[in-house]
Specification:
- With about 500 residues, the protein is α+β, with helices and mostly antiparallel strands.
- The protein contains nine helices and 24 strands.
- The chain has a 22-stranded antiparallel beta sheet that branches. A two-stranded antiparallel ribbon has the order 16-17.
- α4 packs antiparallel against α5 and α7 crosses α8.
- The chain is globular and about 85 Å long.
- The N and C termini lie far apart (about 110 Å).
- InterPro entries: DUF945.
- This is GTP-binding protein.
- It comes from Pseudomonas endophytica.
Length: about 500
Amino acid sequence: MNKPLGVLAGIVITVGVLNTAGAWYTGTKLEGELQKSLEQANVELAQQLQGTTTRATIELASFERHLYTSTAHYRVDIQDDTDMGKQPMVFLFEDHIEHGPLPWSRIKTLKWMPVMATSNYSLVKTPFTEKWFAAAKDQSPLKGQVTIGYNRSVDGDLTLLPLEAKLDENANFVFSGLTMNAQSDADGQNVKGKGYMDHLEFVSTTPGKPRARIELNGLTLASDLNKSAFGFYLGQNVLELSEAQLTFGERQSVAKVKNFEYAGSASAKGDLMSGRLSYSVGDFTLDDKPVGSAQIIMTASSLDIPAMQSLLAFYQSKAQTQADGTTTFAPLTQAEQTQMQVDVKKMLEAKPQLALEKFTIKTANGQSDFNVSANLASPTTFEQPPVELTQQVLTSLDAKLVLSKPMIADLSTVQAQLAGQTNPQVIEQTANAYSEMAGVMAVQTGLAKVEGNNILASLNYAAGQVDFNGQKMSLEDFITLMETRFGNGPDRL
């Protein structure tokens, strides 16, 4: 053997020996690490499901260790509190684990960074999941791979296979599949994920009822979250849907939404949290006729996290789920009422700010906008007359409405079409009548005024004084005015 080949052989043998030693060491530690991970996962599940009626647990059902690989079986139990008399949903997973530091699945894809293990998991066929398997042509419909680093970081992929199934004699379901990727650092402090689904379709053909069809196309999900000191995640979540389509009714009308987007973000500074939610619809059509677009943006800031968590825990302790699925609340004791007031006062001491920054509806002939913001503060005491309490809690409020009469006419046209009206002249006359009626009612009630094609209303409150559509008055006078106009004034009690 010449010298270069001897050196190469020595390197290969050395790497093989080190990988064998590493695999043996990893294998001896793996079961303990899995148990720790599952314990942590169960804690996380309990925290993230807090406030819902769903409970879920994961357990290691069995573990078989070998030199280079191990096999684990997991059991996932999901129980809804509204179905406490029923058996929980049970899912079984099989996991083929390749020991580090150099799992073969990584070597063959030229990933040479040493890792603790690579997990290859899949859903197991059981009587509970056999229909799901049948819809996936007898393949495991859910599978994935997770790589665990020596620093306890995680990089994983999940795949839901395409499905086509007849749910019952009246319903069909078609699903293109979904792929997701997620990364997490040690102990799940930072989590990033993204996913994509191409197509989903559900068709219902119940006898005696019009055929209904729902179709979703181009769904994208993305998250970038950091675990806060309070045990829950903050960060950004985004959902984008290229198109959604609903076919319904005797006339088989087709409502179509394009470019729907949801974006949510939350952050914290000390004990205070801020958040923003936005929803937008790029285009809405009915039977291929344009209807319009819409956008909603909501924000909140200076929310006291410990106080909110205390109120949430209090709510959960008093909520009782009944057999029919309804929720009732146990009566409050005097001590509980006092504690609730303490938490509410603590929240208000942070001076939270709440706003509907934007609510816009735009149609072919008009656009309407509404926004409102409020600043809150803590009262000296809750034991005071309502007006004085309101003056102390609500430090300021600002609201503005621009309601387009042509937009009202456009939406009235859509409503007439849905009602089955087909005469264009009747539709136009009805739409114009609704538009003009809205303006007349606004003026007659004194709640708004009309300028050109717009119905306008504004409300500004600060320091006990109200400016309502340019008319200034005290808070007491404004309350009296509203009671009178809505039929609850002193003369009608």
